[in-house]
Every structure is written in C-alpha cells, then in structure tokens.
Amino acid sequence: EGSNLSGDAYRHQHEITVTGDEVPSPFSSFEATGFSSEILREVHSAGFSAPTPIQAQSWPIALQGRDIVAIAKTGSGKTLGYLIPGFMHLKQCRKDPRMGPTVLVLSPTRELATQILDEALKFGKSSRISCTCLYGGAPKGPQLREIERGVDIVVATPGRLNDILEMSTISLRQVSYLVLDEADRMLDMGFEPQIRKIVNEVPSCRQTLMYTATWPKEVRKIAADLLGNPVQVNIGNID
Ligand code: ADP
Ligand code: MG
After folding, report:
1. Ligand 1 site-directed mutation target among 48, 112, 185, 234, most atoms within 8 Å of CB
2. Pocket lining: 139 vs ligand 1, CB cutoff 6 Å
3. For the segment 84-94, what is each residue's pLDDT rounded down to a tens digit?
4. Atom 2 of ligand 1 has which residue's CA nearest to it?
5. Which residues lie near ion ligand 2 (Cβ < 5 Å)?
6. How is 34-58 classified by DSSP, letter by letter?
7. How sure is the predictor about 1, in pLDDT bands with cuts at 50, 70 and 90?
8. The motif Q motif: which residues (predicted)?
9. Ligand with the closest atom to the CA of 47
C-alpha cells in the first residue's frame, strides 16, 4: 500500500519531518531508487522488503549530491542510508584508490566501525567496492598496508585516523563523500578536535552527511561548521 502514497502522506505516516528547499519525495520502494542491479540484488538477498523511513527520505536527497543532517534513533537503518548513496557516488566518480579513499566514514568506536565495514563489504561486494577500517587498540601495520594497497571506502574512528594522518601515510585529498555517523556520541567522547583536524584535510567541495540520535547545541554547531546548506531529516518526534 505504501508505494501509492504521495510524498507528504508517506512522511506523515512515518513521522518524517524535513527542513530544506525543494525536498524530493521519499522512495517508498527499492525499485524507485534507481540503484544499480548489483545493489538491488544485495538488498533483496538480505531479505529486505522496503526502505526504512530514514532510507526512503534520505536516499533521494543524498543522490542529488546534497548535504544531509539526519536525526534518528538507533536501529533505523542509517548505515545503508549513507552507504548505498556512497556506492552510487563511487560509481560516478571513483578515483585511483592508491591515492586515497573517495568515501570516508567517521564512527565513534571500534565496534561500530567494524559493523559498518561488515555492512559495506556485504552490500558493496557485487559492485566490487573495496573498503577497510581504521581503529585504535590494534597494531597500525596491517591497517597501513590496506591503505597502501588502496581502498575506495575508509571507515575510521577519529583518534586512529588522526594518528595515521599525523604520520602522513594517508591522503584525504580525494575524499568527496564524507559521513559523520553518531556525531553526538563522537562529541560526547571528546573527539571534536580530531574531527575538525580530519575534516580540514578533506577538500571543501564534498558532500557531507551527518547522523545523530540527539540534537543538542554542540551538534548543531559542528553541523553548521561542516555542512553546507543541509537538508534536515527527523524521524520520530526527537527534538
Ligand atoms: P542504525 O545505524 O540506524 O542504528 P543500522 O543501520 O545498524 O541502524 O540498521 C539496523 C538493522 O536493520 C541492521 O541489521 C540492518 O541490516 C537492518 N536494515 C537496514 N535496512 C533495512 C531495510 N530496509 N529493511 C530491513 N532491515 C534493514
Ligand atoms: Mg548506526
């Protein structure tokens, strides 16, 4: 039934509030997304029947190349919300991965970064997208070798990525799709200085997506500093 709803009716039914100019209608089905056949095959074989509300609303915005700040609770499907548009971004502007990643995802913890990597490996496999993970509490050597070998997507905790940047063993000059996942948690953990140093290495002509469960003034401030005229998507009555 969902697929026949108008954009406003879909948003109302799923408690989606959007703030921004000329917001596109949500994708109420996977078929509406225009994703590649490889990606559609992966979501179908995962047994998913429809996009989650955050995916439905943020995918068409992300595919337009626009910045997004999304406020949604955990378990709402945010990871694929940013990973699949990242895959589509790579399809259009993949660079030489040996010169550095094109897509960078910042995540607060090793555990979360590993989960994101697993999702990227699973859903990006048939699109032949390469990715790796950088986190603390593990030797740097193997992580540096992955970077040298060249990857399209890097998922990193701010602390370890900043350490590696200071060693000059990674370039972020090719990053054109930047994700700050669980931004509120990264700030709570005291990562703001590292995040700012990292983002300073990323060219300003980029697409930036920020995900957060809460919307306090610290998060609003970093969003205002790092994103350009973002569309704000709220799911549920947070805020
Ligand atoms: P969040 O980051 O918002 O906490 P996740 O991205 O980790 O949520 O997703 C939670 C779970 O939902 C994961 O197991 C993921 O594979 C699954 N999932 C993602 N998208 C869909 C979908 N469209 N339909 C069903 N399950 C989904
Ligand atoms: Mg998440």
Report:
1. 48
2. no
3. 999 999 999 88
4. 78
5. 78
6. ---HHHHHHHHHTT--S--HHHHHH
7. very low
8. 28-56
9. 1
ipTM: 0.99
Question: What number does the ligand 1 atom closest to the CA of 181 have?
Answer: 2
Which tokens sit at 223? 């969003």
CA angle 198, 199, 201 (to 5 degrees): 70
Q: Which residue has the tokens 């940013």?
A: 82
236 C-beta closer than 6 A to ligand 1 = no
- Please indicate whether residue 51, judged by its CB atom, sits closer than 6 Å to ligand 1: yes
Q: How far apart are CA 209 and CA 220, in angstroms?
A: 13
Q: Domain coordinates of the chain in residue numbers?
A: 2-235
Choose among 107, 111, 108, 101: nearest CA to 153: 101
* 2-235: CATH class: alpha beta
Residue 205: how many other CB atoms lie within 10 Å: 7
Query: Is the CB of residue 152 less than 8 Å from the CB of residue 135?
Result: no
Rounded-to-integer distance, Cα 15 and Cα 236, Å? 5
DSSP string, 98-165: GG--SEEEE-SSHHHHHHHHHHHHHHHGGGT--EEEE-SSS-HHHHHHHHHH--SEEEE-HHHHHHHH
Percent above pLDDT 90 for the chain = 92
The radius of gyration computed from the CA coordinates of the chain, to the nearest angstrom, equals 17
Looking at the CA of 82, which ligand is closest?
A: 1
